[in-house]
Design a protein that fits this description.
It is a single chain. By secondary structure, this protein is mainly alpha-helical. The protein folds into two domains: 21-84, Helix Hairpins (Orthogonal Bundle), CATH 1.10.287.990; 96-200, 3-Layer(bab) Sandwich (minor pseudopilin epsh fold), CATH 3.55.40. It is built from eight helices and three strands. It has helices at residues 21-43, 53-60, 67-84, 96-106, 109-122, 164-171, 175-186, 189-200; strands at 127-134, 137-144, 155-161. Strands 2-1-3 form a three-stranded antiparallel β-sheet. Helix 2 crosses helix 3 (67-84) and helix 5 runs antiparallel to helix 7. Bound molecules: manganese (III) ion (MN3). Residues 27, 31, 79, 161, 163, 165-166 line the site of manganese (III) ion (MN3).
Length: 201
């Protein structure tokens, strides 16, 4: 079964003015689509063809001969999460068990915000910032290129794309402004809480 590009869970202009419709069209229809197309071409007729996306990501990590498959599979997985953890009118603070666990792990929601912001701003070059479940604990980490926390045995529940294609049209070189807009106006904490419960179950 070939992988497919999922539709965005909102209209292309839903995240304006923080992420433009033009960026969303290019990012989803061109960049994400290319990862899906490349992945399907690379695994066709191989032993990976019928594996789950998660299994492909984990199985091809750090395998020089499978680097192309890893990069496209990782990016397909990463973008599927990224679209879902944003919404119009998002941002602010979560509630419930997610907030309690964030406070346990980082001292306060502000403590989490600062750690996540720093990870996203300091990832050198292309990559991602994450909130991930590691066993029972929440962790913030940054990864280069297509790498995600699945390869370290963690389950990502929030991911922010800091590749330049994600923000350059709207923010040029001002990555910190893009990161602030994501945290203040875009994070869909309800989805992140759902992902937390899936990861813990
Ligand atoms: Mn991207």
């Amino acid at each position: 079964m070939a992988f497919e590009l999922p539709d965005l869970p909102y209209p292309y202009d839903a995240l304006e003015p923080y992420i433009s419709s033009q960026t969303m069209h290019l990012h989803h229809d061109k960049h994400h689509q290319a990862y899906v197309t490349n992945l399907n071409n690379l695994i066709e007729g191989t032993e990976l063809e019928n594996k789950s996306l998660e299994d492909i990501v984990v199985a091809t990590f750090n395998q020089p001969a499978k680097e192309g498959i890893f990069n496209n599979a990782g990016q397909h997985w990463n973008h599927c999460l990224f679209w879902r953890v944003m919404k119009k009118g998002g941002g602010g603070q979560p509630g419930g068990e997610l907030l309690r666990r964030i406070e346990d792990a980082f001292g306060s929601f502000e403590g989490f915000r600062e750690k996540f912001r720093e990870a996203a701003v300091t990832q050198f070059g292309s990559g991602w910032a994450w909130l991930a479940v590691d066993g029972e604990e929440l962790k913030v980490l940054k990864t280069p290129n297509a790498v995600n926390p699945l390869v370290y045995g963690m389950v990502p529940i929030l991911g922010l794309d800091v590749w330049e294609h994600a923000y350059y049209l709207d923010y040029q070189n001002r990555r910190p402004e893009y990161v602030a807009a994501f945290l203040n106006h875009l994070v869909n904490w309800e989805t992140v809480e759902e992902e937390l419960h899936k990861a813990l179950s």
